[in-house]
Design a protein that fits this description.
Length: 424
């Protein structure tokens, strides 16, 4: 069956996350977005793990569902056209901080497991290395290669995926934290790295230019720290609903089973351009030499953007592709589109009312953004919604790049064009 999966999220036990991140609210968010398989996040945290065990029950092999009474209570709060199942897959993110080859490395990894027994075994081993209780995304002074080894020893069907691989501060290829190749990081175990998470500030064509990623399945997830951000990036599968089928699709990258990804426009991510946030200074890497990474306003070193970091590791020209690629679809969250059309903030009541109306008439958000025909969008009565969504689908958008931790901005219209067209 075809379904959407978002496999990297956090619970309320992680730092800087929303307090309403409960299994119930993840269920509700997954139904609103149209996500069938959602990562639990944070299985290393004892508090969250206890809650997962209490509220979830086994579903298909390696997947879990909300217990019936909880699911019924959640459904009572929803008013969405159509119905799809929601399953949970046990997932966690681990931050490894260690010294290797003379530099400090800070790298985030996603770990997926097929059952609570495996989770408990792994947690037991990891708690001997570091504190799992202080943060839902624990920090371990452990080499990435050794985390991979421990994980595979604990559960041979475990999957470890380097997270948001281009983030400057905490990733495999991070300019301030990582390595130049998978091999340098995982050494003899590199063959067990089947996939990499591309993060919000890069899209597949950027990654296709880097031969180190050839044969690696590029996955995308939301890394949501609140329910409303669920599915802002996600993966398209066409497999049986089971842990093994999802694992195989990611491992092999078989295009019949792994149908590609849903993406941000990479400019909207927090690290696209080189820049210095405090001085609000940023620039396209084409405009300065790499050695010239200095803020002209304050003289501090700039935070290198993903665009430049990709360029450093790329050997293919822009537009060149590796032998195997998967489709991808660049989206703008529906609340942001509505915010632009209604000229109020994306978290306002006005946007929320329009959002709920669309879901009631047309179905979950990702379905609407990807597939709903133009006339059905027009039938909602929301002016320019049809035009906005079709332009987004064609990539005809305006982009202001993010940099140094500051999100970028992607809009469908210029303010002048929107006002003129709304005025008609
Ligand atoms: Zn992370
Ligand atoms: Zn500065």
């Amino acid at each position: 069956m075809k379904f959407i999966a978002d496999l990297h999220i956090h619970s309320r036990f992680s730092r800087a996350t929303a307090r309403n991140l409960t299994p119930e609210n993840l269920y509700i968010a997954a139904r609103k977005k149209g996500i069938t398989v959602v990562g639990t996040g944070d299985f290393t945290h004892p508090g969250w793990l206890a809650e997962l065990k209490e509220k979830l029950s086994p579903a298909e092999p390696g997947l879990f569902k909300l217990k019936d009474d909880l699911e019924t209570a959640c459904e009572a709060q929803l008013n969405i056209s159509g119905k799809h199942p929601v399953r949970f897959l046990l997932s966690a993110e681990i931050s490894n901080i260690y010294k290797k080859n003379g530099a400090t490395r800070k790298i985030h990894h996603l770990v997926f497991l097929s059952g609570f027994t495996q989770v408990e075994r792994l947690n037991k081993r990891l708690s001997a290395i570091g504190n799992l209780k202080s943060d839902g995304r624990p920090i371990l002074g452990l080499d990435s290669r050794d985390l991979l080894e421990t994980t595979l020893e604990t559960a041979p069907d475990a999957l470890l995926v380097p997270a948001h691989i281009w983030t400057p501060w905490f990733s495999l290829y991070g300019s301030r934290s990582g390595f130049d190749s998978i091999k340098e990081c995982f050494e003899d175990l590199s063959d067990y790295i089947f996939a990499a998470e591309t993060g919000l500030s890069s899209d597949p064509p950027m990654n296709w230019r880097v031969p180190d990623l050839d044969g690696i399945t590029l996955v995308s997830n939301s890394d949501a720290h609140s329910p409303s951000n669920l599915g802002r990036e996600a993966n398209l599968f066409n497999t049986a609903l089971s842990y093994d089928a999802i694992y195989d699709a990611i491992k092999t990258g078989d295009p019949k089973a792994f149908n590609g990804t849903l993406e941000f426009f990479p400019e909207e991510g927090k690290y696209y351009h080189d820049g210095h946030r405090k001085c609000q200074f940023h620039l396209h890497p084409g405009k300065t030499a790499a050695e010239d990474q200095i803020c002209p306003i304050c003289g501090q070193r700039l935070t290198m953007g993903v665009l430049r970091r990709v360029e450093m590791l790329a050997t293919r020209a822009e537009g060149e592709t590796p032998p195997l690629t998967h489709p991808y679809y660049s989206l703008i969250p529906l609340a942001e589109i509505l915010s632009e059309l209604l000229k109020v903030g994306p978290k306002t009541k006005k946007v929320n009312t329009a959002y709920e109306k669309i879901l009631e008439m047309l179905g979950p958000e990702l379905e609407v953004l990807l597939h709903t025909p133009k006339d059905a969008l027009a039938d909602t009565g929301i002016l320019l919604l049809d035009e906005a969504v079709s332009r987004m689908r064609e990539g005809r958008v305006h982009r202001i790049a993010g940099y140094d931790g500051q999100y970028g901005q992607v809009t469908v219209f210029t303010p002048e064009e929107r006002d003129q067209r709304l005025g008609q």
